[in-house]
Amino acid sequence: MFTKNHLFCHRIHPISRQPLAALRIALLPCMVFAACAAQAQTTSSVTVPAPEENKTEPVQVAALDSGDSMAFNMAFLQGNASTADLRTLLSSSNVAEGVQRVDLYVNQQRTGRRDITFKRNPRTDENEPCFDQEMLEQIGIDLSKLPAPVSTESTCLRLPEIVPDATVVYESAQLRLLLSIPQIYLSPSKRGYVDPSLWDEGQTAAFVNYGVNVRRDQSKGMSATNHLSADLRLGVNIGPWRIRNNSYYTSGTNRSSSFTSQNTYAQRDIVSLKSQLLAGQTYTRSPLFDSVRFMGVQMLSDEAMRPDSEQGYAPVIRGTAESNATVEVRQNGYVIYTTNVAPGPFAISDLAPSGSNGDLEITIIEADGSRRILRQAFSAPPLMVREGRLSYDIAAGQLRLNDEMQERPHFVSGSMLYGVSANTTLAAGVQVSKDFNAYSLGVGMNTQLGAVSLDATRSTSRVQGQQSQGTSMNLRYNKFIEATGSNVSINMRHDLSRGYRTLSDHVTATEAPAHLRLYGQRDSRQRIDANISQPVGGGNLYLSASYNKNWENNSSNSLSVGYSNHIGKVNYNLSYTRTRNLQSSFGPSRSHDNAVMLTLSIPLGSGPNAPQSFTTVSHDNSGNAVQAGASGLLPTEREISYAVAGGRSAAGESSASVNVGTASSFARMNAGYSYGNQHSSGNFSANGSIVAHSGGVNLGQALGETIMLAKVEPPVAGVGVSSHAGVKTGSNGYAIIPNATPYRSNHVSLDTRNAPRNAEFDNAVQQIVPTRGAVALATFKAEVGYRVQFELRDEQGAALPFGAMVRDAAGQQLGMTDPRGRILTMVSPEQMRGYLDISRNGQLCRARYELAEQAESLNYQLLRLNCVKREPDPMLPGDLAKQGASQDGTV
After folding, report:
1. What membrane topology is annotated for this entry (predicted)?
2. Which of 272, 558, 753, 776 is the most buried (most CB within 10 A)?
3. Residues 361-375 pLDDT 10s
4. Regarding predicted confidence, which is higher, 363 or 586?
5. Number of H helices, E strands in the chain
6. Neighbours of 259 (CB within 10 A)
7. pLDDT score at 61
8. Which residue did the predictor score with more confidence, 572 or 482?
9. Distance between CA 655 and CA 647 in Å, rounded?
């Protein structure tokens, strides 16, 4: 025999936010109990005897997994349960009528967060979601495939009524709307694609993105030298337009200060063409021709706007630093990347090249001031696009290879790729300038052996009456071997004749004096680059090789092989590098270098943040060297990393170094110092940003191309953003999220675990789809005040019954009481004194309260109040509903 004492409903937690949904969750155990009591019966409802004085009318509750319903007797609840207040709560419609923000799923795939209108359906007497024609198309329904035309005027189309066999399920607890739609009625799959109507152009804003590097080197017996460099990216966003400037500043001992503005341009989306329009000083971006700097206009395809598109390609730069070193990367003579690295191997994978082709020059500046210069080829993958797709680029303007050159001819350049079939792409391009023209044709094929493309460019150049002609061939090959996990990439360029010139070669030859015009000829005859990566034995093996040969048959080459793996908790990396550099085309001056390096890393403890010890042993032409040290994170709230090392170089010099880095909401900073027998060196770097927007000015971490702002309203400082270390809201309630993916759904979530105790959020997750270069805004509503748990009792001191509706002095509904008469809610600072109005079974009572200042250590205040009966007041908003109640007390 079950009695109410066996029920576990009294364990329900206090209800505060979203009272209807929360209370349904709280009532679930009671519903399960009622369902269990019905096991012995064949009908879908059960009637449980109740004491005569507590006898109440059963309420129909929607079944959890079917359209059937079961009766729930209010006598199960402790106290004098209010059928009137709970009837709406426990009705078969588990969502209130009106607009609800839900996560929308189509065939188990999340498509975004939408505001959906729920209206009463007279056929089913349920609150059901309404759709219009535009939203049906956005979620992927092909209206032409439906059995009947869809009204363009209706704003309340019900999915099961217009799409055969479609179903709709609303999960109120998770605020999810699940749509099941037969595949035959959907448009072709667009995985990862977001409809352009949902793209966000972002806010009007201005920003400065900076990277500052400072070095001070001191060699024994010599004066100290200082070096300062600053990489600046400035931007202004106005509507769809993005105005950008990239500049570089250098200064140092024995060198004059230099400020170089690399390029300034305006850019915007051309959505109808899935393209970008650029105007100003920028670089050409062609898969067939080398990139050149120019002033003019350019339009090119933006593959990121398309479904399932590639997000671009950038090389990975690997190398080894012998000390605290600075790495500079140049392309076309301009610095495009600078960073400080600790001793040992490094890999740079976040490079943003200025064009689609052009060798990269990597300079490693060691702590003692010595420099090593490496070169790495950079070229795009094979010429391939999908069947029926056209990818293009068009540029016209005035060439400006660098600011010193006087020769600045006008030119026109264009190229296109077209997928004639699923496995074949045709390519063509043309460049025309004063006394110069070049034509290119190519084909790309996807075969069983991999993706391969071949293109040939024929150029004609006339300088001072002398004509040069030539042809260059490019072969590109990529293959991923699924069975072994191997990645193979080979790029080869071969000039068939010495007269071949690129547009840059032509301008250089025109600028040079007659006796130096040889420099206008391309000296390199052949270039081969190969990269292979292969999983082996649970680790990874990589090989990178390069071969370069000039017209004098002098050659240079480089080979780098490495393997990384682990044995238990010990990680290791073994690498071998061999280089032979050709330093001059006027003679066989060569330099050879062979290096072998072994690095071991061992955790000094358990857990993901345990310190790591490392040991590096290397051998090169100079001798043997060893480095040993440790790195990790300091046990503080702020993310502070450290690394200490000591060692002995191949020249016999002992050294020690220390590095400290931190990531805060306004910058990422790193400082290092090294000391040796013959030299000492210190460095400091800071990367961050300043963003001005309609809500004020905020400092942030270094920015990517596309960024977002998280806004908490009203402003709450110190709220973190998940997945972005160190990012927190400032005093104005804004936080800068430094990276976002354009044209794709970006989920922004607040880290409320460490949020101020006096703040509560309606929804801590937002979804934003920014356009390229946008400063998009995600707004989070917050309530700021004091958490209070009210324990409400009647005039006799008994707890108010479960389900009594509680409103504040303004008539706003705060929630319902739990079985012990409690309610947990947020009270604003303006409501430190006031009263609560409670309604139950058509009766009203009022409880007055006065709050004390809440201590920082308290999660909430606890107040016990007595509720005094009162008569309805037609002037109070909360009483109007009671006056309109039906005769049986139902509101």
Report:
1. Multi-pass membrane protein
2. 776
3. 888 888 777 888 887
4. 363
5. 6, 53
6. 11
7. 35
8. 572
9. 6
Domains assigned to the chain = 98-191 (3.10.20.410), 694-784 (2.60.40.2610), 786-883 (2.60.40.2070)
In this prediction, residue 520 carries a pLDDT of 47
Q: Could you tell me the pTM of the whole model?
A: 0.70
> Which has the closest alpha carbon to 780: 744, 751, 757?
751
Predicted confidence (pLDDT) at residue 395 exceeds the cutoff of 50: yes
Question: How does pLDDT run across 530-548, given as a tens digit for each residue?
Answer: 999 999 988 999 999 999 9
Bridge pairing between strands 765-768 and 775-784: unpaired
Phi and psi at residue 143, in whole multiples of 5°?
A: -60, -25
Contact between 113 and 764 (Cβ < 8 Å): no
**Pairing state of beta strands 539-550 and 833-840?**
unpaired
Q: How far apart are CA 392 and CA 526, in angstroms?
A: 28
Strands 241-252 and 167-171: unpaired
Measured distance CA(889)–CA(883) in Å, rounded: 10
pLDDT of residue 97: 79
* C-alpha span between 562 and 540 (Å, rounded): 8
For 199, the 3-state DSSP assignment is: coil
CA distances from 347 to 342, 351, 519, 780 (A): 11, 10, 33, 38
Give the pLDDT band of residue 513 (cuts 50, 70, 90).
low
Separation of alpha carbons 600 and 613, rounded Å: 8
The pLDDT value given to residue 31:
44
Q: Is there a contact between 635 and 642 (Cβ–Cβ < 8 Å)?
A: no
- With a CB cutoff of 8 Å and minimum separation 6, the contacts of 66 are none
Check: CB of residue 389 under 8 Å from CB of residue 418: yes
CA distances from 53 to 47, 49, 315 (A): 16, 12, 80
Give the C-alpha separation, 178 to 648, whole Å. Answer: 64
- Give 434: exposed, middle or buried? Use CB within 10 Å, 0-12, 13-18, 19+: middle
Calculate the dihedral angle through the C-alpha atoms of 111, 113, 117, 121, rounding to the nearest 10 degrees: 50
Q: Which DSSP symbol is given to 519?
A: G
- Whether omega before 714 lies within 30 degrees of 0, making that bond cis, reads yes
The band of 379, judged by pLDDT with boundaries at 50, 70 and 90, is low
Each residue's pLDDT tens digit, 322-356 = 777 888 888 777 788 888 777 777 777 666 666 55
Burial of 858 (0-12, 13-18, 19+ CB in 10 A): exposed
